[in-house]
From TrEMBL, chain A:
GO terms for biological process: ATP synthesis coupled electron transport. Keywords: Copper, Electron transport, Magnesium, Membrane, Metal-binding, Mitochondrion, Mitochondrion inner membrane, Respiratory chain, Translocase, Transmembrane, Transmembrane helix, Transport. SUPFAM superfamilies: Cupredoxins, Cytochrome c oxidase subunit II-like, transmembrane region. Residues 92-225 form the Cytochrome oxidase subunit II copper A binding domain. The lineage of its organism: Eukaryota, Metazoa, Chordata, Craniata, Vertebrata. GO terms for cellular component: mitochondrial inner membrane. The keyword Cell cycle does not apply. This is Cytochrome c oxidase subunit 2. It is a multi-pass membrane protein. Pfam families: COX2, COX2_TM. GO terms for molecular function: copper ion binding; cytochrome-c oxidase activity; oxidoreductase activity.
UniProtKB/TrEMBL annotation, chain B:
Keywords: Membrane, Mitochondrion, Mitochondrion inner membrane, Transmembrane, Transmembrane helix. The keyword DNA-binding does not apply. The chain crosses the membrane at residues 58-76. Its main location: mitochondrion. Belongs to the COX20 family. It is found in: Mitochondrion inner membrane. It comes from the Eukaryota. This is Cytochrome c oxidase assembly protein COX20, mitochondrial. It holds the Pfam family Cox20. The lineage of its organism: Eukaryota, Metazoa, Chordata, Craniata, Vertebrata. One of its GO terms (cellular component) is mitochondrial inner membrane. The keyword Mitochondrion applies. One of its GO terms (biological process) is mitochondrial respiratory chain complex IV assembly.
Length: 230, 116
């Protein structure tokens, strides 16, 4: 999860998010170099004693400052498109989970093998125990097996919501009457937090998402326990 | 221990307020190489021509080119290493899963002799 006053991304928990982080670093380095160049040119222009009121045109510099930005844009676009298509790859999921947005909670349905479904409400601040995170914890987590491709079908029962988990690199709008699909692989066990990312009313900020990635045998025990409790 | 690592991550130095040099792979090396290249190029040009302003320009161009070159080289090497790491990880996982079965690519199961 994010630490206080964090500006950058959270640590990646899926291969797609790792690629996004690397692309972000790449684009940021290019932005840094362009900013340094512009700063240097400003200082040079301001401090020069040379003046020429009669410059009309110059083919060479026009070519340079047309071709160079085009090259820079290609250098940014190629890795960007690579990741875009990587995110769209069909990856033969091991498990499909439906995430339904409501005002103001999420419900999850695991209907591949048995009929398992539960609601996930935020834990109110006064009910938190020491060690839990304010506005992020839920009473029931979405548990998934680690290192397995998971497909998430996202929709909503009332108004627009959005199912987002930053460390997994996942965000998908929940639109009533529409089924959106996204997928992820949790590359390490852990607990990953997210929050509703589409304004949906008074308690939009109070319907978090918690994904818990566990080894397969733990997932099987958890699903058996949830079915028995249902 | 975890707290110390987190505070190091929080306090990473950001060049121009943009690039976190400490926590971005290859950034520190690229900037250091760029600074070295800039110094070398500017100094050599000045020694050859004694033109101060132009030498600064050449030094800056050297910084840009060296930083970019070092950055791309380091990132490409990094990406190849990550790819190899992922292949090795998958190979180990498959080896553990399929060892002794017909799907094991390294050692096939022994053929049983027919009983008489």
């Amino acid at each position: 999860m994010a630490h206080p006053s964090q500006l950058g991304f959270q640590d990646a928990a899926s291969p797609v998010m790792e690629e996004l982080l690397h692309f972000h670093d790449h684009a940021l380095m290019i932005v840094l170099l362009i900013s340094t160049l512009v700063l240097y040119i400003i200082v040079a222009m301001v401090s020069t004693k040379l003046t020429n009121k009669y410059i009309l045109d110059s083919q060479e510099i026009e070519i340079v400052w047309t071709v160079l930005p085009a090259v820079i844009l290609i250098l940014i676009a190629l890795p960007s498109l690579r990741i875009l298509y990587l995110m769209d790859e069909i990856n033969d999921p091991h498990l499909t989970i439906k995430a339904m947005g409501h005002q103001w909670y999420w419900s999850y349905e695991y209907t591949d093998y048995e009929d398992l479904g539960f609601d996930s409400y935020m834990v109110p601040t006064q009910d938190l125990v020491p060690g839990q995170f304010r506005l992020l914890e839920t009473d029931h987590r979405m548990v998934v097996p680690v290192e397995s491709p998971i497909r998430v079908l996202v929709s909503a029962e009332d108004v627009l919501h959005s199912w987002a988990v930053p460390s997994l690199g996942v965000k998908m709008d929940a639109v009533p009457g529409r089924l959106n699909q996204t997928a992820f692989i949790a590359s390490r066990p852990g607990v990953f937090y997210g929050q509703c990312s589409e304004i949906c009313g008074a308690n939009h900020s109070f319907m978090p998402i918690v994904v818990e990635a566990v080894p397969l045998e733990h997932f099987e025990k958890w699903s058996t326990m949830m079915l028995e409790d249902a | 221990m975890a707290g110390e690592e987190e505070s190091d991550k929080k306090n990473g130095f950001k060049v121009l307020g943009i690039l976190d040099v400490q926590n971005t792979p290859c950034a520190r090396e690229a900037l250091l190489h760029g600074s070295g290249g800039s110094l070398a190029a500017g100094l050599l040009h000045f020694l050859a021509t004694s033109r101060v302003k132009r030498s600064f320009d050449v030094g800056f161009a050297g910084f840009m080119l060296t930083t970019l070159g070092s950055w791309f080289y380091c990132r490409i090497t990094n990406a190849q290493l990550r790819m190899q790491q992922r292949l090795i990880q998958d190979g180990i996982k498959n080896k553990v899963m399929y060892e002794g079965t017909s799907l094991d690519t390294i050692s096939k199961p022994k053929e049983q002799e027919p009983s008489l």
